[in-house]
Amino acid sequence: MSLRLVELDEGFSCYVSGEFEARFIYAEIFQDHNYDHEALPERPVIVDVGANIGLFSLFVKRRYPQASVIAFEPAPENVAALRKNLDLHEVDGVSVHPVCLGAQPGEAQLTYYPQMPGNSTLHPGEKELQKSLMSERLGAEQATTLFASAQMTVGVERLSDVLSREHPEVTAVHLLKVDVEGAELDVLRGIDDRHWPHIGTVLLEAADFGDRLEEVTGLLRSKGFDVSAEPVKFMWEELRFHYVTATRKA
What integer pLDDT is reported at residue 146 of this predicted model? Predict the structure, then answer.
């Protein structure tokens, strides 16, 4: 699917493959401020895991123009959109890594949804409930279109390995944002003990499937964070999505 330039708000356009989802994510980040966080230093280091087409990276660069952003996104079409959007908005200081993050390096099978690229996942079985709800509430034809998928093999790296190899200058990560559609624990398990004390805040979206939310919050507490989890109010309650905020204890 080719990328299209779409105006998501007055004066704000970006390249998208799926306009339906892009408008949703734009509202989530820019209008509803669901990824707001405490004030960061003037020149923060921000890690954006699951960067998609770059809306969160653009948001934080507007707020902190001198920020250094390290962005991770495995789907090639999303990476192309991310780079085009950074160029479109004349944003620098963002390094793009076209890989998944996980607990161990290697390869993985990604299910990519061109119409909803932000839902692309290593765990497609977890999308069945969302598909069913969309079919009931938006119609079976639209749900089928939105969830049309392609399979692709993507590289997997550990966050600590990338930081050590590609960003040795980074001594602190002021904000770690994670939105990876079911792979949250793997991302966190790819962080070495030596890096955890240098991470200030974690913003993470996770579905409460099985014990996952409890495992995510428990891991973050074990690393010295105060942790809260709030349901995502604008999503269908049945999906049980939560925003997790973890701030380092004083």
Answer: 87
If residue 242 lies in a helix (H) or strand (E), which one and from where to where?
A: strand 241-248
**Is the separation of the CB atoms in 87 and 13 below 8 Å?**
no
Closest of 201, 229, 203, 230 to residue 215, by C-alpha? 229
So what's the pLDDT on residue 235?
Answer: 61
Rg (CA), the chain: 17
List residues bridging with 7 in a β-sheet. 13
DSSP string, 37-102: -S---SS-EEEEES-TTSHHHHHHHHH-TT-EEEEE---HHHHHHHHHHHHHTT--SEEEE-SEE-
